[in-house]
């Protein structure tokens, strides 16, 4: 409602399978070649994203890929199959490391980088690969690649004139959501604050088309279309001082998105936690990344580079999480 639907789709959402099609033990760990932990955690979290893994394991992309040179989807397809099918305890993500510059120009081999930035660049590179060879799609159909069909959603921004109560709605696609946790004790309080209307400051002048003048206004942000996989970043770097925010922020195993939707009526929109990324270290500029993922056998594992160890949900929920991955 309120949004124009794309006339064409790149990938049909009906083809997405949210449940694992094959259940097995966890796959291999990933060797760290020196400051590559930020790569390892994202590769592991994506490997254990059920709808993405199901698609990549089907070979459907590589069988029809027409991209010349490096293709992020083909690289991920080969990587996921290697991790999940390997009998080795750990493998080297060599192809990803070799072609790092194609994923993001800012990444330099051997230098400590940010896992969140690597995630965003990886998803964008996969998205571009899905569009390779396609012409004249326009913006809206581009948001129907399998990457957007899995990770993508739409935010709704409603600006209300406080003088005449006229409203203006706009929409924006997203692949992840970054959250300010400075004043929060839990993910729920952060999300509740996000959907609370806020008055625009004077720098954000709003010209009301009904009043025909500049007027005070409020802005409310809601999730208009929820992604199948919701990726949340709990911002650990203070935007004013740059220091690391090391406090614990509570997050649930199951998250109901309904209270944060544009339409709050209806059935609960439940998401289940399946992966988290944790940063250990005193500052955001150094330290170590590790992750916890839920494998296809339904069990949780701590993945710290080449080491893969059993753990329980209580351990997972007790971390100073940096990235949270929820699947509907």
From TrEMBL:
<dbReference type="InterPro" id="IPR018200">
    <property type="entry name" value="USP_CS"/>
</dbReference>
<dbReference type="Pfam" id="PF00443">
    <property type="entry name" value="UCH"/>
</dbReference>
<dbReference type="GO" id="GO:0016579">
    <property type="term" value="P:protein deubiquitination"/>
</dbReference>
<dbReference type="InterPro" id="IPR028889">
    <property type="entry name" value="USP"/>
</dbReference>
<dbReference type="GO" id="GO:0042981">
    <property type="term" value="P:regulation of apoptotic process"/>
</dbReference>
<keyword id="KW-0378">Hydrolase</keyword>
<dbReference type="InterPro" id="IPR050164">
    <property type="entry name" value="Peptidase_C19"/>
</dbReference>
<feature type="domain" description="USP">
    <location>
        <begin position="28"/>
        <end position="328"/>
    </location>
</feature>
<protein>
    <submittedName>
        <fullName>UBP42 hydrolase</fullName>
    </submittedName>
</protein>
<dbReference type="GO" id="GO:0005634">
    <property type="term" value="C:nucleus"/>
</dbReference>
<dbReference type="GO" id="GO:0004843">
    <property type="term" value="F:cysteine-type deubiquitinase activity"/>
</dbReference>
<dbReference type="GO" id="GO:0005829">
    <property type="term" value="C:cytosol"/>
</dbReference>
<dbReference type="InterPro" id="IPR001394">
    <property type="entry name" value="Peptidase_C19_UCH"/>
</dbReference>
<dbReference type="InterPro" id="IPR038765">
    <property type="entry name" value="Papain-like_cys_pep_sf"/>
</dbReference>
């Amino acid at each position: 409602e309120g949004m124009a639907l794309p006339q064409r789709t790149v990938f049909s959402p009906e083809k997405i399978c949210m449940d694992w099609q094959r259940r097995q033990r966890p796959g291999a760990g990933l060797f760290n070649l020196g400051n590559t932990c930020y790569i390892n955690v994202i590769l592991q979290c994506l490997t254990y994203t059920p709808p993405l893994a199901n698609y990549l394991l089907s070979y459907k992309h590589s069988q029809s890929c027409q991209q010349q040179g490096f293709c992020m989807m083909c690289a991920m397809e080969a990587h996921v199959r290697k991790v999940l099918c390997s009998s080795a305890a750990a493998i080297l993500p060599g192809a990803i490391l070799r072609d790092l510059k194609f994923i993001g120009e800012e990444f330099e081999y051997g230098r400590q980088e940010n896992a969140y930035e690597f995630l965003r660049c990886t998803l964008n590179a996969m998205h571009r690969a899905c569009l390779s060879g396609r012409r004249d799609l326009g913006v809206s159909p581009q948001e129907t690649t399998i990457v957007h069909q899995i990770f993508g959603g739409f935010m709704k921004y409603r600006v209300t004139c406080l003088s005449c109560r006229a409203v203006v709605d706009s929409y924006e696609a997203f692949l992840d959501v970054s959250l300010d946790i400075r004043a929060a004790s839990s993910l729920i309080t952060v999300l509740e604050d996000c959907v609370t209307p806020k008055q625009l400051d004077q720098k954000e002048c709003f010209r009301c088309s009904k009043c025909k003048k500049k007027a005070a206004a409020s802005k409310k942000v809601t999730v208009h279309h929820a992604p199948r996989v919701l990726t949340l970043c709990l911002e650990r770097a203070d935007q004013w001082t740059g220091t690391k925010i090391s406090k614990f922020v509570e997050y649930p195993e199951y998250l109901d998105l309904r209270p944060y939707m544009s339409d709050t009526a209806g059935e609960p929109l439940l998401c289940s936690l399946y992966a988290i990324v944790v940063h250990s270290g005193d500052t955001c500029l150094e330290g170590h990344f590790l992750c916890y993922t839920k494998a296809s056998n339904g069990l949780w594992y701590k993945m710290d580079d080449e080491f893969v160890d059993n753990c329980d949900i209580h351990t997972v929920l007790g971390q100073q999480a940096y990235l949270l991955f929820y699947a509907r």
